[in-house]
Amino acid sequence: MNAVRGMVKSTGHRLPASPTLTFAQKAQDACPEALRPALLPLIRLVQTLTEEIAAYDRLVVEKARAYPETQAIQTIHGVGALTAVAFVLVLNNDRSRFKRSRDVGCYLGLRPKQRDSGIRSPELGITKAGDPLLRWLATQSAQYILGPFGQDSALRRWGLSLASRGAKNAKKRAVVAVARKLMVLMHRLWITQQSYEPMRGIRVAA
Prior knowledge:
Layout: H1 2-9, H2 20-30, H3 36-64, H4 81-90, H5 103-107, H6 132-146, H7 154-163, H8 170-192
Helix pairs in contact: 2-3, 4-6, 6-8, 7-8
């Protein structure tokens, strides 16, 4: 998609803004005549890949039905079927594995390393212990929650507050912090089977 947009732009034209699902049709309609022989094959490839990805998404949702306990986890806006099922399976489908939900973040390596000499206490990266796929999925979900399409929630507001503090790598650290807190929240919902309350703990003005 970026290649198509770039080549069209290099000739002084622009393709209309569009989401991935409708990109191929809009790009085909707006493609300059001189570029059509070169770009239409690429546009058809984008369409094919879009359809294949959608098919895989439907397959994941279908497979997730075998784990009905993940439905409560998926009530979090930004957490899909793949992340919910991966979370349950990585924890061996055992809700009682951790006595405290907050321990899940440490288990997945989302806690910062510690190297405190008594004189210095430097800021270090996360431990990256535990399952790398689930840690990546958690980070992706956190980025969505903090991104332009994220739903307003207590978790989003907390993460945006961290990102705005202006320290070096503040945004990156905010994503990791939200991912860690998200794992704790997912574990809690898995245990209680309650639906997610986005604004829980925040007073709404009358």
